[in-house]
Automatic annotation (TrEMBL):
Keywords: FAD, Flavoprotein, Iron, Iron-sulfur, Metal-binding, Oxidoreductase. Its cofactor is FAD. The keyword Membrane does not apply. Residues 56-310 form the FAD-binding PCMH-type domain. SUPFAM superfamilies: alpha-helical ferredoxin, FAD-binding/transporter-associated domain-like, FAD-linked oxidases, C-terminal domain. Signal peptide: none annotated. GO terms for biological process: lactate catabolic process. It comes from the Bacteria. GO terms for molecular function: D-lactate dehydrogenase (cytochrome) activity; D-lactate dehydrogenase (NAD+) activity; FAD binding; iron-sulfur cluster binding; metal ion binding. Residues 653-681 form the 4Fe-4S ferredoxin-type domain. This is FAD-binding protein.
Amino acid sequence: MKVALTSPRSGLTRTEMRTIPHEVQDLAAELQRVIDGEVRFDGYTRMLYSTDASLYQIQPVGVVIPKHADDAQAALELARRHQVPVLPRGGGSSLAGQTVGAALVLDFSKYMDQLITVDVESRTATAQPGITVARLNGLLARHGLMLGPDPASADRATIGGSVANNATGSHSILYGMMADNVLEMSVLLADGSRAHFGPLDPGDLPAKARTGGLEGRIYDTIPLILQGVMEELVERWPKHWRRASGYNLDRLAASLLPPDQRARLSFDSRFRPEVCNPTRIDRFNLAQLVTGSEGTLAIMTDVTLQLVPRPRRTALAVVHFQHLLDACAAIPDILETEPSASELLDKQLMDLARAQPEWAKKLHFVEGDPPAVLLTEYYGEDERELVQKLERLEGLLYARGWRSTVVRILDPARIADVWSVRKAGLNLLMSRRGPYKPVPGIEDVSVPPERLADYLGEILAFCRQQEDIPDVAVYAHASAGCLHVRPLINPKSAQGVEMLARVGRRAAELAVQYHGAMSGEHGDGLARSAYNPTIFGPTLYAALQEVKRTFDPDNLLNPGKIVDAPPPTEHLRFGPEYRTISLDTVFDWGADGGYAPAIEMCNGAGVCRKLGAGTMCPSYMATKDERDTTRGRANALRNALAGRIPHEELFTPEMKGVMDLCLGCKACKSECPSAVDMARIKAEYLVHYHRHNGLPLFNRLMGWLPTLNALLYRLAPGLVPAVNWSLRTPPAKAALARIGIHPQRDLPAYAPQTFERWFHQRARSDGSGQRPNGPVILFHDTWVNYNEPHIGQAMVRVLEAAGYQVYLAAGRKCCGRPLITGGQADKARPWVDHNVALLAPYAQQGIPIIGVEPSCILTLRDEYLALASDSQRAQVLAQGAFTFEEFVVREVEAGRFKPMWRSGGARVLLHGHCHQKALVGNEASVAALQAAGYQVEVIPSGCCGMAGDFGYETEHYEISRRIGEDRLLPAVRQADPEALIVASGTSCRHQIEHFAGRQPVHLAEALAAALAD
C-alpha cells in the first residue's frame, strides 16, 4: 500500500512528533532489525531532513543512515516492498530541492565517507558517496592529484551528491563537469539488485542485455530509446556543453554513432589534453547516464573518478568593468588567452562582502567601487610564466578596446582570499536582511559564452520591468556561460510566488532561444524540472520519461525530479500562508526584522557541515549528526515558530535537545556567510525555555558564581585554602556531580588574593607619576579577579612598561556572559546597563577599555548592543572596547607601544579563542606576539570544546573531549616541548591542560615574559 504522507504545511500532534507515524511503523520496525547503521523515524529527524539549501520543504517518511552498502540495499528492498519512495542524500546542500521529498531518506554522509583506493599511475580514485569533495582532495593532495570539478560547496558537498547533480565549478573550462570525470560506479537498482556500470564497447551491449533482470532490461532498452530519437538529439539537444538539465542522453548517443558523426554530439574539443583527459565518448557507459540523474535512476554505493594533477602555481587578474554587460561581452576575448577560470562578481555581492568584517578584509582585490569584476585565473609552472600570461591578457584587452583596471595577484594567500569570497558568493547574497531575497530558480541558466551578454541583457531587462523585483544579483562562471542570475523576490507573498513562476518561464524561453539549458550545474530538482518539456521539446522529453520508466518502473527513486515534476511553486518552505508566532524577546532583534526572521536567515546551504576546517560547527564536527548543525537548530526553531510542528513543542525537552550541543562559539556569526548568530538565538531561546520549565540548579550556580566569589573574599578570605582543598575531595565531587559537574573536572582554584586587592595595594605603594602614553581602563573579568590574578598582573606590567597609566574599571559588574549563555539574559540586563553607564563615559573621552578574557570584552561589543537599554551609549562603549592584543597592535602601528623586549623570542603555538576568531580574528594575536619577537605558528584548530561551563557538565564531558580532539589537542601533544602554548581564553587553557597535559599561558603572560629586565 502507498503511504499517506502528511502535507508539509499541516501541523503534527505532539504524539506524532514523538512516535513513528502509524502507516510506516512496520517498515521502521523491519529496518531496525536489519540495519547496522541508524534508523530514525521520529518527528524531529523527519523535520530536520525536510529541507535542503533550496526554497522547498517536504516531510520525509523516515531516515536511514547506512553504515555500508548492505544497509543501503536492505533499506531499498524493504522500502520497495512497502511501496515507499527512496531518496539518497549527501550534505543536503542542493539548491534546487533534489534532496527533499516524501520518501525514505538514505543519508550517506555520516558513515559511507571513505576513500577506497587511489591509483596514482592511472590517476583514478574510488570513493564512497558520502565523502566530501574537499576531504577527498585533501587525501589526494599527498599524491599531487585532485578532482577537477570544484563546486563552491566542496567543503560540505559529498561526492555522491556532486555526481548525482553533475556538478562542476569555477574551472569547468579546463575540467568539464562531473560526467567528464566519472569512469565507473557501483549502484543499487530500483529492484534492490546490484550493478556495476562502466565503459563498454557498443558491440558488447547485446550480451549485456541477455543477462536478464532489471540490469539486462536497461541494457536492452536504453540503446533503443536513443536510436529512436537520434536525429532529434542531433538537431534539438542543447548545443552548450555546460548542462546539468535532463539526463545525459547525448553522452551515450555519441557512442552509438559512427566515428565520423560523433562530433555532432561531442564537446571534447574544448579540453586541453595537457590538463585534462576526459572520459571517452566512443564507449557506452551507463555511469554517464546516472551522473546528473539526481538519484532518480539508481543509488550509488561507490564511484571511480578520473583525477588531474594539482596546479603548481596560479595567478589572478582581477579585471574591473564599468558596466556589468561589458564584463560578459569581454569573455570571448578573455577565453582566447586560455585561462583556467574567469568568474564574475557584481557590485551587489561585493557590497555585501564589505558589510561583514570577516569578508571585508578579504576584498583587497577590488579597487574603487566597480559595477563588476572578472576574476581571471591562469596556471603556470613558475612566476615568470604566470606574469607572461597576465601581460598577454592585458595586451589583448587593450588591443580589443577594453579600458579597465587590472589588479594582478600572485601571492597564494591573497589568491586564497579571492577564491574564498567567490565561493561564499551565494551565501553572501543570502545574507541580505528583509523580506526580499535573491532566490534560486533561474540562477543556473547556461548559454554559450558568446551569447552570454545577450542573454543577460534580456533577462535583466525582463526582471527590471516587473514591479515586484527591486533588484537582481549576478555572479559566477562567466567563462563557461553559466551566470547565477538571482532576482530579489519576496517568497512569503502571493505576488512573489507568482513572480517566481513568471521569471522561470521567461528564463526557459531564453535558454532555448540561445541554445542553452535551464541548469548549468545546480541541477533540476523541484526548481527547474517542470521546465524540461520547454528545454528539450516533446520528443526528447518523452525519451527522458522513458529512460526513467526503464530504470525505475514503479517510480520509487526520488520521484518528481527531472521528469513528471510538480510546478516549481509547490512545496515551498515559505509562501503567502507562512506565519510565525511572536515572542516577547529579551534581545533587540530589530536589525534582523525580528526573532523569526533572524532564524530564517539560515538558507540551508549547510556551511555548518564542513569538516576539519574553521570552527563552525564544532558539535557537528564531533558527531556528524544533522541535528547538531546550525542548520538543524534553525530548522527546528523555524518549524516550531511557524506551526509546522505544534507551537507547544517549542519549549519541550526534545526541542531543547536539538539546541543542546550549540556551544555558543559564535563561529556561525562569521563563518556562515548569511551571518546566522545561533549563539544569540540560543541564548534568547533558553530564556523562554526556562520560563516554561524552570531553571536548573547548575544554571543558577553558574549565574551566581560572580556573586558567590565576591562573598567568599568579602566575608571569609581566610577560608580560601580550605575551599580549594574541599572542592577536590570525593564528597565535594559527588555533590557537584549531583548538580551536573563531571567528577573528572576540577573547578578553577581560588587565588590567595584577588587581582583587585593586589592592584589597589600596589597603587597605594606606587609613587610614580603619570606615564607618557596616557590612561587605559582595564576591564578585569571574574576569572582574572578571583582565579587567575597573575594574568592581570602580567597585563599591568606590559602596559606600564609601554608607558600607559592603568586604571581598573572600579565598580564594574560581571560582563554577564555566564547569565547570557546559561539562559538568563533577562537577568543580565541590569549588569549590562550598569557597565554601560560606568564605562561609556571613558570611551566617549577616548580612553581605551581593555579586556583580559576575550569572551568578556567582546560581550561588550556584541551582546551589549542588543541588550542594553541605552543602545547609543552601548555603541559608544563597543567602539572604545578592545581585546588586549587588539590594543597592543593598534598602539604598535601608531608608534606608541615601545617597551624594551628581549632578543631572540621563543617559538609560540597560538590557539585562538572562538569568540575572538569569530568577531575580530587571530591576526592581532599573531601581530602582538611577533612584535615581542616571538616566532608564531597558529594552530589550525576549531573550538577547544570547553566553551565556558559547557565542558564541565557531565552530559557534555565526552563531546567536549571529542571536539578538542578534532585538531587542537593532537596538535598540542605533538608540539615541541620547548614551544610556548598561548591561549587567551580561560576555558581553552583549562581544556588543554585537562586533556593534553600542557600548561598554556595567556598572551599577556607571553608578552610579560618577553620584556627586558
